[in-house]
## 1
Amino acid sequence: MTKSIVSIRNLHKSYGKVPVLNDFSLDVYPNEVVVVIGPSGTGKSTLLRCINYLTPFDSGEIHLDGQKIDPRKTNLNHVRQQIGMVFQDFNLFNHMSAFHNVAVGLVKVKRVNRGEARSRALDELERVGMLQYKDQYPAELSGGQKQRVAIARALAMNPKIMLFDEPTSALDPELIEEVLAVMKSLAAAGMTMVVVSHEMSFAREAADRIVFMDQGAIAEMGSPSELFANPHKERTRQFLSKLGYRENERKDESDG
Amino acid sequence: MSIFDDRAAEVLQSLPYLLQGLGVTISVTLLALLLGGLIGLMGALARVYGAAPLRAAAAAYSRTIRSLPLLVILFFLYFLGSDIYEMSVFTSMVLALGIHTSAYQEGIFRAGIQSIERGQSEAAAAIGMTPFQNFFTIVLPQALRRCIPYWGNEAAIVLKDSSLAYVLGLTELMRRGQYVISRTHQAFLTYLIIGLIYLILTLVLTRGLSYMEKRVKIPG
């Protein structure tokens, strides 16, 4: 059996008395793209944030590349360098140009010399199609452009896996495609990814596995063709039909 | 007795003497601002990032200092200082003014730090920055920019409060003014000139800071 890049085992997390993750387990394998879908408030974002320990959890284990992460022994800053994360609200560093947003991690965290940081940052900006905007500041960029810089910033750390937390939810409809295109090209290049998103075009085209989450656990899981064509559970079916409806609605809007 | 008599000329001739007090006024102001800035920044850090006891201690410090008149702090430190060892009037004034402004600067810095969106700190953590790197690379540079206008107000207040040092006999601008008055009996004209000097100093300070604010403004 192939070794997983990230192995999530029996994760439990509650906010006060409200359980968010309920014995959640998932293995993500090299080069795999896992898309997590599910109703809001079902723990999708919390799941991603637990993987890189941005949110502490109550019990369970995360293994990265076969190594168990023990926050008391493992340096979490070192762990996080290996796990790229892209946020819904971009979270770019507002006082830095696009270039510096990408380069700062290389210089401050990886401590590579300035020349190398420069060429690597420019490479990553080119990879997301933002090279010509390298000197722009976040306030001068559109949402889609910001998100592409945020992806480049995460990629610059050369992560083993990329986590995407609803990367297109804060975008105007006409800007979504440019971000999805970057994500699809990453997937095609073999990046291991866990993506929380309801962009069905991305899921159909790029996902190896769809995880349908409900009430903090995996309700159903399968390849996109299996899950979309023939969902086993009523809950999944209902949810997918709602998504389909919303997808059609958006098409209507952009037509009109 | 008219406001201006033949001794008015004497006041104008005393201008160089008055201006010699500028050095003391400016150095008291700058040193107090620096001291207050350091204490204020540490207090803000304690109140934003500190554990509960540290937060409480920093808040108590701030509240206490804010509720004391500068003059009380000044006399307290002066008499305490001269009891323990020969603390100079200059040192007493810098300490008193520095401690006084630290409580207000703490509030300014704290507001600046808290105004930076949490998401940026999360993004910094997500690329593996330590909390220390995050603070100095991401949070502080943006927080300080936002603080400039409010800090400028505080700096102008400190500049003018430095005149209180005259009560201890420190020969800054105000004290020298008093000497000129006792020689010339031209209180109105002397205070007018002193007022103008403070006006010019304050203008230079606030103009300088707003120039700086524009220089470091984040594009967009």
## 2
Amino acid sequence: MSDSEISDEDNTENFIENPTRELLAEGLLSLFTPIVENLDSKVKQTVLVQLNINAQLDILSSVIKDQINKQNKQDTSEFDIALRNLNAIKSKVTVITNVLHSSSSSKFIVSNIMETPSYSHLTSNDYNHVYEPAEDTFLLIDALEQDLSSIQASKPLLTLEIGSGSGIVISALAKYLTHQTHGFYAVDINNYACNATKRTAIANNVNVETINMDMLTAFKYNSIDLLIFNPPYVPTSTSLSTCEDKEPRATVEQEKFYDIEADTIFVKDNQEKMLIKSWAGGDDDGCQVINRVLGELDNILAPNGVFYLLLIKDNNPEKIRKRLKSFGYNSIQIIDRKIRGEHLLVLKIFKNLL
Amino acid sequence: MKLLTYNFLTSKCIKKVKVGYPLKLNIMEQKVESTNFNPEFIQRVLPRLDWSAIKIAADSVGCQGFPDEINLETSTNDTELLQKLHHLLLEIEVVTGSLICPETNRIFPITNGIPNMLLNEDEV
């Protein structure tokens, strides 16, 4: 897609590519956090003071009522006015208290945001071998963040990401759930990606068990409670495999889909194959790798397991959902986003109604 | 690789391998990283442990006092056992070593804490 084709709507998303975005966000967050926390404690103090005033006013008004009764309605007009004033003040205080209460709860929402893990330790050299976090990565993190309360309630014992790449998605989740569970796993067919995942986990003070593996071929069946997959979803003009067997082996020959950069980085070595594998989804709507996982889902998931799958509209999500339904899985689209010609979405897939 | 992970790995993906479990475990370099004891996690993971693998893991690192068989009902309240399991499964990191298929003796190397379970095309 050329620049001229980018609509205004798409253009607004371009800031995501800005490398200083994370830095800015971090800076802003560190600026805001102490202020918000300070504000929060002030708000709490004020709420207490307001409640105190309210109680005092209650006492005062009852005292006045007594006085009125005692005076047998003599000279009551003055007291009536005072009483009315006091009641007006009291209702104002109640309104302010309510406002303060609601601002307290907005503070709670602010503090419930899932932090993007730090990945500044990864360099451009790493990204010659490993898929660099991009819009799809952040959409998947946003989807998990949005579903965090249901994830926490389901208490996953083993959480595993297939094709973890840089490792920021699984580290984001591990950062949030680490006090609850220890079972965070990442598998990637690319050894370089495994190392990057491990480094990202360490940089974020979490443990993510990383295994260099093709899908879950060496993992015990029915062990995964929470499965996450940002697959290679880009439809390509030819099959990923030139072999007879179904397994994509990345024996990618000079493909049309790779023309733009073919002159510089045509598949020369294994690492370049690996980088292609991180995004090329094959000719079946880009679903060659996705279909492999779907076919194995019954063996992968533990009973009541849940699967978060990122897709692009070109993958034909409705067809995928029908296929899932045919072997007993429900699915809902929990988030979607249009970014520069790509319409990304995340499906939540599960067997039982939650 | 923590030893909890060892409990979940098999070599069933190799052509003609019937069970591929438990794998043999060869540790060249290990380290201990202490983590907070979360009894609930160990209790919940207990039914997913294969005791034959746990015994191999415990023997490999010299952790003693594990029963020959596990009784899920009594073990879940056995704090001493839960603590031992916590140490064995979550605190011992295998940095370098290998996992070996019990049927074919195919070696899967562990480097930098990462097991390499990849197979060549002619092995699957």
## 3
Amino acid sequence: MSKRELRNLAGKSLVGILCAITAGMLIVFLYGIFSRGIGVLSWEFISQPPRSGMTEGGIFPAIVGTFWLTLLSIAIALPMGILCAIYLYSYGRPLWFVKLVKLAINTLVGIPSIIYGLFGMAVFVNMLSLDVSLISGALTLAILALPLIINAAEEALQGVPKDFTEASIALGAPISKTILRVVLPTAMPNILTGTIISIGRVAGETAPIMFTAATFYSRRLPSSLSHEVMALPYHIFALMTEGSKGSLQAPIAYGSAVVLLLMVLGVSSIAIIIRYRFRRNKQW
Amino acid sequence: MQIMEKSFKTLSYIAALFSIAAVFGIILSIFLEGLPLFKVVSIQEFIWGNAWYPTHGEAPQFGIRNLLIGSVYATLGALVIAVPLGLGSAIFISEIATPRLREIAKPAVELLAAIPSVVYGLFGMAILAPFIRELFDLSTGLNLLSTSIILGLMVVPIIASMSEDALSTVPKHMREASLALGATQWETITGVVLPAARSGIVGSVLQGFGRAIGETMVVLMVAGGSAQIPGSIFESLRPLTSTIAAEMGETVMGDLHYRSLFAIAIVLFLITFVTNLVAELVFLKRRLK
Amino acid sequence: MRKFTIILLILTLAIGFAYAKKNQITCSGSTTVLPIAQAGAEAYMDAHPDVNISVRGGGSGVGIAALQNGTVQIANSSRPIKSKEVSACKAKGINPTPYAVANDGIAIVVHKSNHVKDLSVAQIKDIYTGKISNWKELGGASLPIVIVSRDVASGTFEVFNEKALNGAKVVASAQLLASNNAVVSAVESTPGAIGYAGLGYITPEVNIVSVERVTPSTSTVKDGSYKLSRKLYMYTNGKATGDVGSFIGWLQSAAGQKIVEEQGFISIR
């Protein structure tokens, strides 16, 4: 074997090994969490509030809290995000303004989540006196989700063939109608998958809700926007750090982690599958 | 009709304005809350001071040097792990793997990027740290090494998926030309594909850097929290983010300690903003080509 | 799609207003008081199903700030309120009123294998300020001391800092952990470690060191002969009345104090 062939083989094996190490580490990680948490899962665990000083019972209020936080924040961010993407896609003037918007979006993507938490605390909780509540948390998370949704929506809109728009406009339809009737419906599956992926991100965030929405223990389910809520990611953190009975509470933390992982990974897989199907069936 | 058109345009314009307002709101709020600190503590003292005793009775000290260096160490440690693994995986998936394997690997990488950081923190705190402590016979497993491993693991999917995107945009004919000239596949990868995708790869590493330095839950749970410059990879550290998260709850609203935590947020914001801007310029360079 | 989200929003609001009437008590603050407040809330709610009590951590400062802003009815605190906080409250027309709900001793803990049984306050100070760095200087095995402390902002640290350290600065190499629980588990797994935590958090997996020959116990904490003891408080705005008053009253009663003791703290009765 020549030296070059040998190097070829060595190089290819190297990246193969690196990929295998990555996969191996991630498998160890997932196995570590699942093997400790899966045994905790039961109907009682997902349908009951915590009992006996947070050492028994379930995590139902935390699941419901995370559900509402996620749903509300996406409900706020989605229309906003789509409209913003439409602006970038169809009006796009003046240019300096578009550049500024894009810079803003990119900045938002890069801001650490703890800063979102501080912002939410300073503005929603304190300044607007919304207190630590479902709505403070949802607004904070909505701003965190906004750039993700804008980016997904803009990419989806760009993916719609120009022929479609041109045909519609040539037929005399105004821009608004063209967008609402032609572009948006065509782009919707891609917008939705992008949104679903950001749902996964929002549901798992801890730092932004620490000071804006999360509570350690509440038996009641959130029934008003002004209630503070338990939330899965915060519950995991709180049990591991604030709980007073480590050995009894760790299993609950692992169980909560498994539930959170299943929720987040489940939702993201759905998005990926939809997108895959959609791309394959694309007719143009 | 005209009204419909107008209002639609206005509505989308407002939404675009809102995204700018959000950024300004965030910047404004952290600066308004943080800047008053510098009336009392000089910027130099804040950045270069080596003592972080924000609650000390008579003479509180607000020097974040050790915290800043802690953040940088943890982030660099994470990149030392994540860059080879992420880039290697990206090359493997994009250039070497069979199409079938690629079909599975790409979405898998994307899925992994969605794992919540608190779950990584849980793993690091309860499983990895005790393991590291036993393995090296240390006094604590909550140290720079554990932090780097967990942060690295978290950043791998980001670097892998973005680098993979960059590699797959390199036109096929460049590879074919190189192979036709008699280059081996490895020579094609290192000599043609990687240079062509360079800017995208650098961008992915910068994004990984931004993500790691801004990560809170992992460092809060795994770093150990000593406000010192770690002398070795086996010592504890206290990055900027975990300082904010751990102490914000205990401050008196509006006092110096509260302001100093917002001032840390300003530093953190500036770091990520610049990193992001540079990453963006790298990408823009590619777009202009 | 937008219609769909709007409908969802309206639905949420509708559900919200339909059920928002229940009697609600929110308490927030010290993580040390957290187990008492949580277990107390659980038992109280079992007896009074029409009341809901939500318990949040955060820290003593957060609790008092929230009381000051009128967003909680009860602020849990592991230290007496500071004069700065009192004046901030007064400025907003809030009159913080303390209710002691438990006694707590801050126990000094070391690893199971450590033979050091007693430390003086001066020795503890020397350890935490870095003057003593090896257990052999204290009559133990030759082993570097690993200092474990709480975050400098926590109520537990403040009391420890005042009563054991006299306000001296903890050496920078000390691990600063976010909770009592984290401190105890760190000491449990580290042969050279020393740490401190509220009595409620001490597990049998660590050794308690006596301070000035006094072991923290029910009687030594109650009569104050144990140096590192303190009271845990719930603060309310003015005199606690209504549901809040009956909750705190119940917590101070024999039935409530039984829960306090179950959580590892010491009764005030």
## 4
Amino acid sequence: MTYSTVGVIFSNIHDENIPELSKRRTMASIPFGGRYRLVDFALSNMVNSGITTVGIVTKNHYQSLLEHLGSGKDWDLARKDGGIILLPPYSNETDKPYFSRLEALMGIKSFLEHRREDFVILCDCDGVLRIDLSEVVRFHEEHRADITMVCHEEESVQSSYYITLEPDAEHRVRALRINPDVNGKGRFDLYINLMALKRETLIGIIENASQYGFTSFGRDILSKNVDSMRIFGYPFKGYYAGINSLEAYFRHSLEFLKKSVRSEVFGAHDVYTKVRDSAPSKYSAGAQVKNSLISDGCTIEGTVENCILFRGVKVGRGSVIRNSIIMQDSVIGMGVWLECVIADKGVIIRDGRHLSGCEKLPYFVGKGRML
Amino acid sequence: MRRKKECVAMLLAGGQGSRLYALTNEVAKPAVGYGAKYRIIDFPLSNCINSGIDTVGVLTQYEPLELNEYIGNGQPWDLDRAFGGVHILPPYQAKKKSSWYEGTASAVFQNVGFMKQYSPDYILVLSGDHIYKMNYAKMLREHIRTGADCTIAAIEVPQKEASRFGILNVRPDGSIYEFEEKPKEPKGNLASMGIYIFGAEKLYRYLEEDDKTPGSGRDFGKDVLPAMLKAGEKMFSYRFSGYWKDVGTIESLWEANMDLLGEEPVFNVGDPDWRIQSRNPNAPPEYLGQTARVENSMIALGCEIDGTVENSLLATGVIVEEGALVKDSVVMAGSVIRRGALVESAIIAENVTVREGARIGERNGGAKKIAVLGRNITVSAGAKVGGGQILEGDFKGENE
């Protein structure tokens, strides 16, 4: 990478948006797209942009994330210098575990101080997109920005906390709003929780924040300094899926049945994930599978339409599954009928059950449940 | 105390596999694709690590580049060990002499130094051209229990096929009294699987003697094992009764692939208790489109299917366009079957393009003869490739 850059991924922020899926896991480890977890998109963007050191900030429920990441070798991030560096919450008697992004950043100050890279990319795990981050850093330099915030044009947002930007023609952000009422009022530029800045700038912000007791990055840093700092909005024009509610998760997941979305996001097969050594999927005589993404290790004997099946899913004879997302190792018995269902990992649906939700309200079956 | 390994495996992977024709033009046989995502060598390597053997020498000679790249540091099989692990052993130039591997025995003999680094008590010799799941540790326990100098894994084959194999004639206790190498009229039907365990010192001695024997073919089956038997060494058979398939021919490679299909497949690669590990290509889930029909088939990641696939195995990233039919076939990674093309009873190697309306191996109800398309070739639109035909280069059809 022309501009030496270190990545920081926040694994927990936005957990509250999808309590169904993040109750027992971090936002980062929410399964997506048949064989990925949300963190894979953030990590792959970094790796494909030439970033070889990524700090991952964790807070709680991070066991599944640790298991997923391992040594980092599946992302080519098992490195002697750098690679994946886990940044679990650090606390002593006086400090409590962090609650805000700014507090999280205070906790990783020494990590940032010990790195040598000039730039930092801060990235959350609530988005699925393919972006060349070296372009973002180049933009940042070209505009002599203090902070570059990546934004995407949206029509609505369901997140419980979000920031909209109002950049001028030169992309300088002139107004920055937190949780404005934007839905149903036309298009707006949503900050997609991806930011570039100089490492020393970030360290300065952190030091300042701890002196003045700031707690909110959005309110105390960005919003307050929109005039005094050169904050720029990098307009991302590609496909962006903001995973900020169960409905958005469902809708964006099924968008991957479109070839255009797949070829843009998966590129030349370079979204990386943990390898599981599953056998290729088996389709029985009598199986009917249409317009679906099927991951490895599945056994399909029934009918599957407009679905996403994760690794190791079994679909029994005579079952019909439509418009549904079935996660890893779930077992659908015989004669089952599912419509608009999200089944989390390891769900067992017994023979003959009928379950149905609708597009706006998919029927969710929690991890490991047996129905 | 010196660090040591109880058992070191030596995997013979140097063979050309000439009976696989176009499939081994550029790669050694062990690197040939199998089962939609695997390569033949995944089986002995997975068997080793699953059996607790973590030191493996892979003897390569013929077209080793891709095999070397595939094995890499051995990490996909957990064979990237600080002490031990997998090592590629090509022939090398030595101070006193240098030579190509003349036979299986000379290949192992040239690498006695490699084995001795680990001070092993036992040496396991494997070949890289069989598909099977086997716990070598059980065989080693038998070897130790019988106090044998050499134990040979053996499987019962149908009497009429016995003349294709090395046959072991054994006493009731399993000890071997006679070898018959591809006998015209075999006395028994217990075939050697080409899997041997030796006491390490014994092996070193017999390899050295074989090296000094003029006229020896430097081959385990023909030279070393008969010499040991003749000298009165204690040799035992170890009976194996699971699935074992030699994939040395087009027919047998095709059959071994088909053995993975069906309601109750003859061979199961998805056994969670005996995982077949492999270098996993990175690809998104396969996509089956609105017009896709896939039955009794195995499909790997990254495939995009809009046509019909029946009784077939499709490896990573294969594309089958709308109106194309793939039936009773094996299609290896990255190949593309265009609109309206027909592929029947064929093995298609990597990165082949079958253009619109081309017809490969069409049977018209006739006897099955497997068509083979070698790597990277293109079959022109509308061209016909008959059953049993083997193509090594681009093909435009007879009429052009």
